[in-house]
UniProtKB/TrEMBL annotation, chain A:
Limits of the Response regulatory domain: 2-121
UniProt record, GO biological process: phosphorelay signal transduction system
PROSITE patterns reported for this sequence: RESPONSE_REGULATORY
Entry keyword annotation includes Membrane: no
Name of the molecule in the record: Response regulator
Residue list for modification 4-aspartylphosphate: D54
Keywords of the record: Phosphoprotein
UniProt xrefs under SMART domains: REC
Keyword Isomerase applies: no
Pfam families, sorted: Response_reg
Transmembrane segments: none
Organism: Paragemmobacter kunshanensis
From TrEMBL, chain B:
Provenance organism: Paragemmobacter kunshanensis
Key word Nucleus present: no
Protein name: HPt domain-containing protein
Domain HPt intervals: 19-110
Highest taxon of source: Bacteria
Length: 317, 110
């Protein structure tokens, strides 16, 4: 794995490179600032697999650097891990919003570093598998192989408001207790996703996901919502604010928007995607469940017809 | 600098040896910056610049010292960083700076 590490402290860069070497990652290039890192990405001819950046740097901080990296086509999906002091954990919010994948705390702990980089390694392996899958789809390979990928969360090409599902889970884990309780998640299930998946080519299916994503963005009344595709035809939205509209209203708006694509889908002999919006899920006070449980509950709600949901509407994780 | 200067048990080819060497090399420069900032803070002159230097240096030391085996220096630096972030009073910061400065000085004498 080719890693680019950025920090204004040369000692930290040596330390990080040394620790990465200890856990088996020796291809590390270091840069002392965001500006020099961008120059390296643009002109070195090297394609990096992972970027590790300090959060607090003079001139260009980690969030600004992340945003600039994400503007480069070759690095839209590259895992970017923020490195931050324990007392700077709140600042990683901006980095997540700009497209960061995860964060590591200073001082470095080799066990944590191994776990986080291992996660990146698995993510890259999954992407390679997806690329191979796309190649197989292109060749109209075995249907069994195609079906196996229906569940996989993907970053939808061209859907700029979407963040990786893994990044959304990581973001939830950074929230303190207070912010966790003020955060809610709701999911949007494409009811006929599996039908479309089985009938369409891989590229058309992904295009359909992009169409739904765009309609979700249009229908939402606020921009303060993180959106991610969780696989199996489910989008998950997360917000700390009141979305300002009921699930039913949102569902109608999205479905009306999708009807505009009817002729395009008809040309491919495909049904128009139809969505169901689930009830918002929140963490319960004094609940010992893991923070990411609200995402599971949100998806569960969207996948079940309303008559099977709890009577008071809101789901508590 | 040779293997004797490294943390006990680390050979010169240990992956963290270059970081440890650099940490020690930079300790003198950082000690100098902190000492000058301490004097400015104590005299009440150029306090803003002194606070900036203190926070910057403490942040960098806090991020590396512990991982290189200098746990006490790391803790002192983290405390100084915390106080500078919280705009704690001058006295509290001067007080917290003392063990950090002497820790760096001890390191240079090793």
């Amino acid at each position: 794995m080719r890693i680019l590490a950025i920090d204004d402290d040369p000692v930290f860069l040596e330390l990080l490179a040394g620790m990465l070497k200890m856990i088996g990652y020796a291809q590390v290039t270091t840069m002392p600032s965001g500006e020099e890192a961008l120059h390296e990405l643009d002109f070195s001819g090297m394609l990096y697999d992972c970027i590790l950046s300090d959060m607090q740097m003079p001139d260009m901080d980690g969030a600004a650097l992340t945003a600039a990296i994400r503007q480069r086509t070759a690095y839209r999906q590259t895992p970017i891990l923020m490195i931050t002091a324990m007392n700077g954990k709140n600042a990683v919010d901006d980095a997540f919003a700009a497209g960061a994948t995860d964060y590591i705390t200073k001082p470095l702990d080799i066990i944590e570093l191994r776990a986080r980089i291992g996660m990146v390694d698995r993510l890259l392996a999954e992407r390679r598998r997806l690329a191979e899958f796309a190649r197989l789809v292109g060749q109209r390979a075995a249907a069994a192989e195609i079906k196996a990928e229906f569940d996989t969360p993907i970053l939808i090409p061209g859907f700029d408001r979407g963040i990786e599902f893994l990044a959304m889970e990581n973001y939830l884990l950074t929230l303190g207790v207070k912010r966790m309780y003020s955060t809610s998640a709701f999911a949007i299930n494409i009811k006929n996703a599996s039908i479309i998946f089985n009938k369409a080519t891989g590229a058309t299916y992904v295009q359909m996901l992009g169409d739904v994503g765009a309609q979700i963005v249009d229908a939402l009344k606020t921009e303060d919502v993180m959106i991610s595709y969780a696989g199996s035809g489910n989008f998950v939205c997360m917000t700390e604010r009141d979305p300002g509209q009921s699930p039913d209203d949102l569902e109608i708006l999205i479905n009306i928007g999708l009807m505009d694509f009817e002729t395009i889908y008809a040309a491919d002999r495909l049904p128009v995607p139809q969505v169901r919006v689930g009830e918002p899920a929140r963490s319960a006070f004094l609940s010992p469940t893991k923070p990411t449980r609200i995402l599971e509950r949100a998806i569960q709600s969207a996948m079940n017809p309303p008559e099977k949901r709890s009577k008071n509407g809101q789901m508590v994780a | 600098m040779n293997a004797i200067d490294l943390r006990p048990g680390w050979q010169s080819d240990h992956p963290l040896a270059p970081a440890e060497r650099l940490f020690r090399q930079m300790a003198a420069e950082r000690l100098d910056i902190l000492s000058r900032a301490w004097a400015r803070l104590d005299s009440g002159q150029q306090v803003r610049e002194a606070m900036f230097d203190i926070h910057h240096i403490a942040h960098m030391i806090a991020g590396t010292a512990g991982s290189l085996g200098h746990a006490r220096i790391g803790l002192h630096a983290a405390e100084v960083e915390r106080l500078s972030l919280e705009d704690a009073g001058r006295e509290a910061l001067l007080h917290a700076l003392r063990p950090l400065i002497s820790g760096l000085a001890d390191l240079l004498e090793d």
